[in-house]
Amino acid sequence: MSDQSSQDQNEPRSHFITRLQTLERQVGENVLAALESEGCVAVLTTVVSGLRADRVVSVPLDGEQAKDVSAVLAEAQVDPDESDQDEPLIGFHVVLKNDEPDDA
After folding, report:
1. Is-contact 62 39, C-beta < 8 A?
2. How far, in whole angstroms, is CA 88 from its chain's centroid?
3. DSSP states along 13-47
4. CA distance linking residue 48 with residue 27, whole number of Å
């Protein structure tokens, strides 16, 4: 067993190198990559906070998913007859129910 571990130590380790980019460039590249997905008509992108670093996440949406997101956004719009809030609304959180059975 010690022969195997000494061989593993002598083998070069794989590594990944990525250039640091501006947020605008990273988001743009993520969006363009997601748009290349089959059936993609829109992309949903967000920044996800992490312990070591934040990440940019882009999800390709097909036509039905884009329609669902549009419906959620339309529902989330503030009614102009409502009184002004103390602070402007800059985001929302929505849980979408999956119509598929749990077994799928």
Report:
1. yes
2. 24
3. PP--------HHHHHHHHHHHHHTSTT--EEEEEE
4. 12
- Name the CA dihedral angle for 3, 4, 6, 11, rounded to a multiple of 10 degrees: 140
43: β partners: 60
Whole-model pTM: value is 0.52
Angle at 77 between CA 72 and CA 83, to 5 degrees: 150
Q: What is the pLDDT of residues 42-58, one digit of tens each?
A: 988 888 888 888 888 88
Query: What dihedral angle (degrees, nearest 10) is formed by the CA atoms of 60, 66, 70, 76?
Result: -50
Pairing of strands 55-61, 42-48: antiparallel
Which pLDDT score is estimated for 40? 92
